[in-house]
């Protein structure tokens, strides 16, 4: 009987212990994180654009006379020249001979005029004595007038020849850089043949393409920054905003002047941004924003040390920070970095809690 009682006592103790609930094991966090809060800052608004680089103004230097060959070429592509600097010369022998001929014709016309005036004076003296009729005296005056006209014509021809002689010297029409040369040594020219192209003052500008909505926000004088194909950054200013849009692309050009000493060259294609009037922005560090499935997210930390994945709409980026347009409460604690290794609801360990600078 005693043996049965002991067995019952042991069994009751065993079943009581089995009924006690098991103590839950502490949950292990997946990642240690640092948190920050969103910050309000005054940021410039940026318009992003692409466009080609082209000369500010390009001058075309043509031949002004014809039937003369190019005797020498004094400049080539890339040459930096001053206004009036010699670029090429044309063979001038025939023009010099023509000038000598015209000088002789002027001298002859001057002599003829001198003789006509002398005859007119004598006729006037004789006519006062009644030896000449009024008609004869009129003939002498007409001869003087004809001689004067012949002299004026001869002088005009001489002046024309001298102009043509000056045109045998092809000179730069302005300061700048030679961008193209079609002049060939020995080529016989026709009037109007192109010889050189010149980038005036060596100035290059960025012709940024904008749509109608963006165009309305741009004004001359605004700062623009662009990145060249080689990675160099260049700063310029808006010089001119096109008054019309292209009927084919529905886009307009904004002309942005660049420094003369920049690495920009005509023919390049560059991207950049135009700074508009600044406005307030809610910003977080760019490391806090992750991209998943084509959308932007941040992780916020709750009081139970679990993170919540929140979709956000991002805007401008500046100095390793990004603007949050919507989807975020400013007092929220935001995971600064490492969001790519987190999932919604994950438990984390807080390393440092601070209001950090984005």
UniProtKB/TrEMBL annotation:
Keywords, in A-Z order: Coiled coil
Superkingdom of this protein's organism: Bacteria
A GO term from the CC aspect: efflux pump complex
Coiled-coil boundaries: 99-164
MF terms (GO), sorted A to Z: efflux transmembrane transporter activity
Domain annotation CusB-like beta-barrel: ranges: 208-274
Domain YknX-like C-terminal permuted SH3-like: 281-349
Ranges of residues in domain CzcB-like barrel-sandwich hybrid: 70-198
Signal peptide positions (record): none
Pfam families: Beta-barrel_RND_2, BSH_CzcB, YknX_C
Sequence similarity: Belongs to the membrane fusion protein (MFP) (TC 8.A.1) family.
NCBIfam families reported in the protein's UniProt record: RND_mfp
Protein name: Efflux RND transporter periplasmic adaptor subunit
Organism field: Pseudomonas viciae
